[in-house]
Amino acid sequence: MTYRRLPSLVALRNFEAAARHRSVTRAAGELHVTPGAVSRGVRALEEEVGTALFTRSAAGLVLTPAGEALLAASKEGLDRIAAGLVAMRQAAPPRRLRIGAYTLFASRWLIPRWNRLRESHPGLELDLQTSADPLELLPGAFDAVIAVADARPRLGLFSLPLVPIETMPVISPALLPGFDWHRATLLHSRQRPDDWPRWLAAAGIEVPDPTRGPRFESIALALDAAAEGLGVALAIRALVGADIAAGRVAAPHPFIRSTTRSFTLLHDAERKADPAFAALRAWLATEAAREGIDDPRQTHP
Amino acid sequence: MTYRRLPSLVALRNFEAAARHRSVTRAAGELHVTPGAVSRGVRALEEEVGTALFTRSAAGLVLTPAGEALLAASKEGLDRIAAGLVAMRQAAPPRRLRIGAYTLFASRWLIPRWNRLRESHPGLELDLQTSADPLELLPGAFDAVIAVADARPRLGLFSLPLVPIETMPVISPALLPGFDWHRATLLHSRQRPDDWPRWLAAAGIEVPDPTRGPRFESIALALDAAAEGLGVALAIRALVGADIAAGRVAAPHPFIRSTTRSFTLLHDAERKADPAFAALRAWLATEAAREGIDDPRQTHP
DNA sequence: TGCTCCGTTGAGCCTAACTCAACGAAGATG
DNA sequence: CATCTTCGTTGAGTTAGGCTCAACGGAGCA
User: Fold this and answer.
1) Is the Cβ pair A275, B46 closer than 8 Å?
2) CA distances from B61 to A181, B64, B68 (A)
3) What average pLDDT does the segment B268-289 reach?
4) Does A275 contact B69 at a Cβ distance shorter than 8 Å?
5) Taking CB atoms and an 8 Å cutoff, what residues of chain B touch A274?
6) Please, is B74 exposed, middle or buried when counting C-beta atoms within 10 Å of its C-beta (0-12, 13-18, 19+)?
7) Same domain, residue pair B63 and B114
């Protein structure tokens, strides 16, 4: 029943990298793990095959004859597999998914994370189209759509909430000292005229007239205006992190208003099992989960 | 820094087996896992590469072109690695370790497990020599010794307790009905004359004379005598499990006397890091830990 | 003699991968 | 044509392999 006896392939990969570099530390760098992990992996492999593969010295690693033989085999074997993955992508040309997304979400969230998708899923190509108008995102012109939606299930649609809509006020950092709600100019988005009244009510702040102030076509423009010092805009928390970190805007008040809606991935329920859709979902879910852990704009400047 | 991008090699192995067999169930059999594990692994791989590798039907699996390409590559790659392991064993001829072991332990514990060692560590060959005399096992004539020892560390020796010494009485199952300690014949081992007095005292059983009865050269012979219905012998729990399961002997009393000593692997402390010794230790420790979970004589009849 | 670099290791944690059990779909059988 | 069997999938929960962190020891270097 046993066709082939293989050691732990994880340990084997550790060994192969360590042997190729003649260094535990460099192998750890290549594999993005700690040197300790590589050291343990190699030890485990040596124990499994019952033979020393390296002679260790502080200067570096020297392969034993057995190690040389195993290095050749594992390098060729892993190379063959890696080459096969490339060949496979030609047998299956990149899968192109047409994605429709809300403009602000695309520019502040999706695009900054784009590189990681290309790296981790080379077989997936996204054709991104954006719209500031939620209605345009509804029809079947896209394979999948990222829109603002509540958690309510929709017949025939699979939905995956990604990023909660939470509003918070932002102003130019220059205006932060002595900021006064009664004298502040509220910057509105035409699409979301109720945002300010709701936020102010939830925060328990009273102003002369919550509907006063200039109206902009989109939240993005209101945000730009706030950064320019024109007044205070309501931003979506998850989408202004980088602006705050970069010092473009700052929060004059700590209250964040939660809502029941999220930026949500929506696609045809029948395509749930399609690996391309599964990959897209998994990637988006992972990125959404690491929200706040590290911002891509910080780590990949 | 990233030399090669590889998917999860565990998932890849699942896929390769499933693709080769054109069957999840058969692949699971080969890999000694459940079909669910293989199914999940393949799904994860498909998601990782973003491409369907199989088209599923109840009749079986059919590979997509991408799956064909990946099967070829992974099969060749894994074959190359497996072949390299064989070649490696020729570069490093089997390591032969001279093992000295207490006779009863060797026959009742070590030998029944021998096959699993040969299977899991083909690079390790044990040269087993046994003795019923503990003194013969001490000197440096062996690479490692399995002897009765307490947990006290010994200078210059590495020790690994394997199986605790616990004594329990056994008789022929035929004598079990109406067994009476006052009329029973105690079968003694010459090497361990104190065993019966100690066990009886610990169990709180009084007999006319705990030292009466025939003396045999070894526990093994006393055990044989008990099985023949000559009387009641004191056996070591871990070594009579199979005899009890096979109905050769039975326990007339549930009490098991624990001691501070164990069958213990002993070897030169300096050879602790030697992979062959590490492999031997790991194998013995694993076998000792599965003690009672399944007896090798049951599963490999 | 002290510094630095490198590999190892003890302790503890985390998550990928596994098991178990239940389920639905597609032949096979009577 | 109902029933049974086989096979792959999947939700829930568990486990252990592999990882990190931090501390340590030995070898070369200043």
Assistant:
1) yes
2) 66, 10, 12
3) 80
4) no
5) 52
6) buried
7) no
CA dist., res. B15 & res. B265, Å (int): 41
Indicate the pairing of strand B186-189 with strand B215-216.
Answer: parallel
Domain CATH code at residue A64 = 1.10.10.10
Which region among A23-27, A101-105, B17-21 has the lowest average model confidence (pLDDT)?
A101-105
Give the sheet arrangement for strand A186-189, strand by strand: A124-131, A95-102, A144-150, A257-268, A157-170, A232-236, A186-189, A215-216
Predicted local distance difference test score (pLDDT) of residue B80 = 95
What is the number of structural domains in chain B?
Answer: 2
Residues 6 or more apart whose CB falls under 8 angstroms from that of A183 comprise none
Separation between Cα atoms, residue B27 and residue B38, nearest integer Å: 7
- The answer to whether A121 and A85 have CB atoms below 8 angstroms apart is no
pLDDT digits (tens, 9 = 90+) for A188-206: 988 788 889 999 999 999 8
Find the closest chain A residue to B121 by CA distance: A49
CA distance A234 to A193: 11
> Who has greater pLDDT, A40 or A136?
A40
Contact A190, A156 (CB under 8 A): no
What is the C-alpha to C-alpha distance for residues A144 and A160, in angstroms, rounded to an integer? 11
Assess if residue B252 is contained within a domain: yes
How far is the C-alpha of A147 from the C-alpha of A159, rounded, in Å? 10
In the 8-state DSSP scheme, what is residue B108? I
Sign, CA dihedral B240-B241-B244-B245, equals negative
pTM of the model: 0.73
User: B45 with B111, same domain?
Assistant: no
Q: How far is the CA of A36 from the C1' of C9 (A)?
A: 9
Q: Decide: A250 and A138 in contact? Cβ < 8 Å.
A: no
